[in-house]
Amino acid sequence: MSQQTPAVSKPEPEVTRRSFFLALFGIGSVGMGALLAVPVLRYVLYPLTAQRGSAGWSVVGNISDLKAELASGQPVRRTIDFQQMDGWRQEDSAQAVYVTQAGDGKLRVLSAICPHLGCSVSWQKTQDEFVCPCHGGRFAATGRHLSGPPPRGMDSLQYKVEGDRLLVRFQYFRSNVPNKEPLT
Ligand code: FES
Description:
By secondary structure, the protein is an alpha+beta fold. It folds into 2 domains: about 10-50; about 55-170, Rieske Iron-sulfur Protein (3-layer Sandwich), CATH 2.102.10. The protein contains 2 helices and 11 strands, in the order H-E-E-H-E-E-E-E-E-E-E-E-E. It has helices at about 10-50, 65-70; strands at about 55, 60, 75-85, 90-100, 105-110, 120-125, 130, 140, 145, 155-160, 165-170. The termini are far apart. Mean pLDDT is about 85; it is low at about 45-55.
């Protein structure tokens, strides 16, 4: 007769409970890690996803002064100061704008940045038009494109009047495309 080995009881319930808690701990750790990683990743990737943009309104000048200068029929050039975000950094910037007045008296504020490749456009009194020195783009006093490689007219900027002050919200726009596409 063969001897039978006595059955050894296996601690199955114990192993299963331990495995369950280990698995639960693992899942909890991964979940916590993922939760903590989201804000860290957002902070690290912010400069890649954030667009270079300007914030707020800049003073162009006093309406009364501007209107007095506009009475000559020529656009008025002003340099405005503004702050812009470049990644994490806030930078002080300055850009030239032109204030023009249409026949109905309505003001228009134009960016001096050429919509072709970004050179600075200037008003040529003798030619009665804006001219870009880089590739000869030409624009009417209203900013309308007249000739040359720029694919659109000069970019008009949002403005408002507060008391006797003219304020403008400066924006950059995508260059060399037919439609005005804000980058801010
Ligand atoms: S950058 Fe102005 S015409 Fe090219």
